[in-house]
Each structure stands twice: as C-alpha cells, then as structure tokens.
Design goal:
Structural class: alpha/beta
Low-confidence stretches: 74-89, 169-174
Strand order of the largest sheet: 3-2-1-9-10-11
Helix content: 10-25%
Strand content: 25-35%
Order of helices and strands: EHEHEEEHEEEEEEH
Distance between the termini: 33 Å
Number of helices: 4
Number of strands: 11
Radius of gyration: 16 Å
C-alpha cells in the first residue's frame, strides 16, 4: 500500500498454535504480505515454542510489538525492542507495552488481567494506567472496536478462530470467527479495518476516528 495510508499496523493475536488451532487461514495468509506494514501489534497467546508464529510476524514488518498471553511459552520471545533486528537470547514478552504511532499512544495488553474479561470498565482502568489513547487487548477471541470514555478499545479477536472459554457479551459461547485488524494511522487520524472470515469469505468493516474527536468527547 502507498504512503498515503500513513503507517500501517497489523493488530493480531490469540493464535493458540498448535494447541487449539493448526495454522492461520490460507485466505488471511495471502493477505499478509511482508514489508507492506510498518508495525505488528500482537496481543499474545501465539502459543508454543517451535510453532514458528513469532518468526512469521517478524517477517511481516520491521517493528513487532508483542505482550505475553496467559498461555504463552516464555522462551518464544526475543530480548530487546521486539523488532526484526533483535537477535538476543529468548526472554519473556512484557505484560504490557505502550507504542507511539502517529499522534497516538497505543497501549497493548493481553486482557486476561482485566476482570471481568472483556469488560469495558476494567479495560479502561488498564488504559488509564498506561496513559494510552487507544487500548488494544485480546483474550476473548471476539473482535471489537469500541469507543469508550473518549478513547477507543480495540480487540482483534483470534486470527485462527481458536476456541475460547470466555462468554460473549450476550452469553453465547459459539460463533467465533477468525479475525484480525489493520490500522492505518496518519498523524491524528485512524482508519480501522476489521477482517473476518465467515463462510470461507473475507468480510471487511471500517471505522474512522481522529485524535480531535476523542479529545472533544472527554
């Protein structure tokens, strides 16, 4: 994609390979082309050493930012700034991370620490703690782009559609679909694309917001 999109960020997580899923859906793989994105923001649960998931993410973008999920193997991560240039010995992913992209502070956390899971009030507490404009979390395996208290909470869902014990907001425990999110960030503006694989078809929805809009609602 051209620079007119600004900085492109792949938001992804909850792979659970190989314990709950075997691979990323082929239609998604064909869409995730190396060197088209500047950042990968991963909510964790890749899950097991040797699965190759982290290496795949490092091949997609020069900046890979990943936090630890509740089921991640600690030796999967690499030491340092989680970029493709890092070649240091393996250590644990951090529990949280804050990344500045465009004019936004983006907080990253897996989400199992937030009780009740997926609760917007609980997530807002983490967002305030991190001083973030946008909070990205996972764990529920259900994608969400939620305006909340003058900020945005984003959940990419599970890119593999892996099983989750977390109930949805309406109490259902079925209907999980593979999903990921692309953020196009240009200065104070964000375009958020949600990709879902439903009935073997990729469906895309779009949300747009700006830093000024967020600040005006606080």
């Amino acid at each position: 994609m051209s620079n007119s999109f600004g900085e492109l960020c792949l938001v992804v997580g909850d792979f659970h390979i190989p314990d709950r899923s075997t691979t990323i859906p082929e239609k998604f793989k064909r869409m995730l082309v190396p060197n088209k994105m500047q950042h990968v923001l991963c909510t964790g649960n890749l899950t097991t050493r040797g699965s190759g998931v982290y290496e795949e993410l490092r091949n997609l973008a020069p900046n890979v930012h990943c936090v630890a999920g509740d089921m991640d193997d600690a030796v999967m991560a690499t030491k340092g700034d989680d970029t493709a240039a890092s070649q240091q010995p393996s250590v644990s992913f951090p529990e949280t991370k804050v990344v500045k992209i465009g004019q936004f502070r983006i907080g990253l956390v897996h989400g199992h620490q937030s009780i009740p899971w997926g609760n917007q009030d609980a997530l807002a507490g983490y967002r305030r703690k991190l001083g973030a404009d946008i909070l990205i979390s996972g764990h529920t395996h259900r994608n969400e782009v939620t305006p909340y208290d003058g900020h945005y909470h984003i959940n990419p869902g599970s890119i593999t559609g892996a099983y989750s014990p977390c109930p949805s907001s309406n109490g259902a425990d079925s209907g999980l679909v593979p999903s990921f999110i692309l953020l196009a960030i240009q200065g104070p503006k964000v375009v958020c694309y949600v990709y879902e694989l439903r009935n073997d078809n990729v469906e895309v929805s779009k949300t747009e917001f700006s830093k000024n809009e967020l600040e005006s609602t606080v």
